[in-house]
Write a structure and sequence with these properties.
Blueprint: E1 15-17, E2 25-27, E3 32-34, H1 38-46, H2 57-67
Antiparallel strand pairs: 1-2, 2-3
The chain binds iron/sulfur cluster.
Length: about 70
């Protein structure tokens, strides 16, 4: 994660897609729905980057799978 940028909510455990087409992006931690990424709303409200980011298990697994090498000889 780059400390100079807001965390990528799309890779966060707490991100979800809402049913509200006007505010389709949600955050379970902060209980917000927004048009843009919730981490940008958090930055606006708190004046600092979101402290709640937690890498989603699915993302972790994908990264592990990408870095694993299956070398069978
Ligand atoms: S906790 Fe932070 S990074 Fe995660 S979805 Fe909420 S705003 Fe985004």
């Amino acid at each position: 994660m780059n400390p100079d940028r807001s965390p990528d909510c799309l890779k966060c455990e707490y991100f979800f897609v809402t049913w509200d087409t006007a505010f389709p992006r949600g955050c379970r931690i902060f209980g917000i729905k927004s048009r843009q990424l919730p981490s940008l709303e958090v930055k606006k409200a708190m004046g600092r980057h979101c402290p709640g980011f937690k890498e989603a298990e699915a993302v972790k697994k994908r990264i592990e799978d990408d870095h694993s090498t299956d070398i069978t000889v």
